[in-house]
Amino acid sequence: MGGAERNARKKRQAQTTGRRASAPVSRGPSVDRKTVIIGVVVVVLLAGAVLGGIIYTNSQKNETEGQSIQTAAPQATYSARRDGAVVVVGEDSAEVTLDVYEDFLCPACRSFEDSYHEDIEKYVADGTVRVRYHMLPMLNDRSDPPGYSMDSANAGLCAADAGKFPEFHLSLYQAQPAEGSRGWDNQQLVELGKDLGITSSTFKSCVDGDEYDDLIQTHFDEVRETSYLQQDFNGQRGFGTPTIAVGEKVVEPSGPNWLDELVRAG
Amino acid sequence: MLDGIGVLVRLGLAGVWLVSGGIKVADLNQAYVAVQAYDLLPAGLVSVVAAAVPFLELALGVLLLVGLGTRVVAAVSAVVLLAFVGAVAQAWARGLSIDCGCFGGGGQVAAGETAYPEEIARDIGFLLLCAWLVVRPRTPFSLDGWLTGNRQDVEDTVDTGDPQGRT
Question: Which of B36, B56, B68 sits opposite A42 (nearest CB)?
Fold first, then answer.
């Protein structure tokens, strides 16, 4: 009870002091006080904008969670086999072997695929071209959360093991997530495999278990240091994706006939 | 005269924030790429900063436009701009090749396409606008003026910090 009394006394005292302090401004709050209130309101509004922005952005980015990745089918069917961290598509007897270095998140790689995947499919199907796909985690930190480049590259190798690489590869490019977006997670990559007809249970454990991450990373470290793959980017030499090479020579895919010309020359 | 300049400064800075924030909000994925390119923050924080900055800029712009809490908003703007200058300066010092992403865009660019001095100079220009508003926050056509009484003497009162002096 004594405590309650003390509290009550304190409260009374506080009230009296408060009254005394504010006594001169009996005609409404002072300009000073209003300014302080406005300042507090403004800080709260700014904090609200930040918090709301973070919540909104997260929910917007997470909209793709659980969605299924649209499947796509190449116009021709052919086999693909995994060779280490590389997927080889086409006949060993092909006249021309293309080395394609790409990243599933890289927009320029998507442009390359959009422009030329049909030509490549045609030549692979008729046995004139063989393609060695090197899927690399070049832009691994450009998805939010990071890691889509590696996850998708790993899933690509798993899909090759399961015999569905051409479909898997084409589907992932046609449904490419934007840089800075969430990317597709392993669960969605597994679902895509299932939708494409992969039935083996090892595919799921391969994707979920990041089976080939180390292999891919080692291969990527070698590739980016390979001297014949370095190109000029405005005076700076470096490795970038996509890079297309025939033998130890980088070729520039441009115009509608670059592949025809390669095949004729080959 | 000073009032006229003040209102132009306020609306000018408001326009800067509204445009820069608006462009970023329209492409939040790009904002992530831009923040990530500074190579300054761990991945978890990149995500948070890239989500927060566009909306903070928009809010600063709206508050400046309506003239609410102008001094506080100008001070926060200055802090944000100083952080931007610091981020650009460290990218420059470390030899990164990035676009600041100040007004959209951002991310890696070719070595010859960086514009660090221009970007920093531009931010310093904006900082001068902030400084004006911190020193002289009261401008015509503002909610501040409307809420606290839009008389010229009110401004003096606020500036001297002695509200009783005039009443």
Answer: B68
B161 touching A (Cβ < 8 Å): yes
Question: Closest to A41 (Cβ–Cβ): which among B50, B69, B113?
Answer: B69
In the block, which residue shows the tokens 């998140």?
A: A105
The chain B residue lying nearest A181, using CA atoms, is B29
The 10 Å CB-count burial string (b at 16+, else e) for B85-105 is bebbeebbeeebbbbbbbebb
Q: What angle do CA A204, A210, A214 make, to 5 degrees?
A: 150
Interface predicted TM-score of the whole assembly (ipTM), two decimals: 0.87
Q: Which two tokens stand for residue A28?
A: 């409404």
pTM for this prediction: 0.84
- The Cα B12–Cα B132 span in angstroms is 12
Structure confidence by residue, pLDDT tens digits, A147-182: 999 999 999 999 999 999 999 999 999 999 999 999
Residues near A32 by beta carbon (within 8 Å), at least 6 away in sequence: B158, B161, B163
Cα separations in angstroms, A94 against A82, A233, A262, B43, B57: 17, 32, 12, 44, 57
| A37 to chain B, closest Cα gap in Å | 9
pLDDT tens sequence across B63-96: 999 999 999 999 999 999 999 999 999 999 999 9
Residue A6, pLDDT > 60, answer no
Q: What is the pLDDT of residue A141?
A: 94
Please identify, in words, the CATH class of the domain defined by A71-265: alpha beta
Interface of B with A in 113-142 (CB under 8 A): 113
